[in-house]
């Protein structure tokens, strides 16, 4: 596998010359960039034009990862030309959260082949219910197919996101690529590092990803009590206090949910993924050292699931915007911690997201929030 990474900034252009020699039907071009590139897509069009036969996949971000550095208002790009791995791409329109399940199932069916090994998926970050999107993929795929990726970001603004395929950046899009054959090696890992606090409450009224009541009390009113003065900054400040969910008291599997929006009239909260009625919910808060250690653990898990990896490995790092807001000037520490745990010579790009998609440990994928999620790609 041939691998090249580069980044783009308006002030300085491309850090490395785009190499059209890497263009082929077995080439994957990954790109993560600021939301403003939907209005100024010239560098994205330049990238697509440089690799006309390749499969292009990308999305907007809440910060771009390039190596061990974090940047805003840039593009982070990786070009992978596989030798013995086939690639196919597909996309689906999603104009509202209600279409999320069907979009996931449609993409899975389109990409399914007997030798399918993995799917990378990037989704609109505002109009899609991530849990339903994942459920759609899981309904059509066996456990042996690794599905990973994330939801596009827009800083802490929550106004507009885009997803990129061969036709350019668009809102309301879910795009995916399938990787096929025995030679591709895919690793995955996802960890959080937040502390749980306060009482565990029962979700007494919800509909999909909209939470109305906890313990019979209006969810937003209760949440504001915990936030205190920070409640004035909702929904952005909710990123600092995500929700931990588990199905029942003895469950060890905990999924984390991030708030995307609030409704004062109904006193409800909309999350990036489902908050099922009858589940148990508990607030979480940050622990700096545990967040950074969580990134290391995610990388260690990725290394284990990938097995032996050849030279030229790419790490795709997708971390939640809430982690960035908490870590502040220490954000690059989690990026560095992840890369340090991976094999020497691994190159890394990625982005800060509104949701992360990866298996919890193994098997079918889940939607995660507030995690560092890593996917590694290499070829035997």
Provide an overview of this structure.
The structure is a single chain. The chain has 2 domains: 2-191 and 289-379, no CATH class; 195-284, no CATH class. It is 21% helix and 41% strand. It contains 7 helices and 27 strands. The strands form 4 sheets. Strands 15, 16, 17, 18, 19, 20, 21 and 22 form an 8-stranded antiparallel sheet that branches. A 7-stranded mixed sheet has the order 2-1-7-3-4-11-12, covered by helices on one side. A hairpin with a 2-residue loop joins strand 5 (64-66) and strand 6 (69-71). Helix 5 (288-306) runs parallel beside helix 7 (331-341).
Overall SS class: alpha+beta
Instruction: Give start-end ranges of low-pLDDT stretches.
Output: none
Share of β-strand residues = 35-45%
For the terminal residues, how far apart are their CA atoms? 8 Å
Largest beta-sheet details: 8 strands, antiparallel
How would the global form be characterised? globular
Number of domains: 2
Radius of gyration: 19 Å
Features:
alpha+beta, 21% helix, single chain, 380 residues, 7 helices, globular, eight-stranded antiparallel sheet
List the helices and strands and how they pair.
Blueprint: E1 2-9, E2 13-14, E3 27-33, H1 42-50, E4 55-60, E5 64-66, E6 69-71, E7 74-81, E8 86-93, H2 100-111, E9 116-123, H3 130-140, E10 146-151, E11 163-165, E12 168-170, E13 173-180, E14 184-191, E15 195-207, E16 210-214, E17 217-218, H4 219-227, E18 243-246, E19 255-257, E20 259-263, E21 268-271, E22 280-285, H5 288-306, E23 314-320, H6 321-327, H7 331-341, E24 347-353, E25 355-359, E26 365-368, E27 372-379
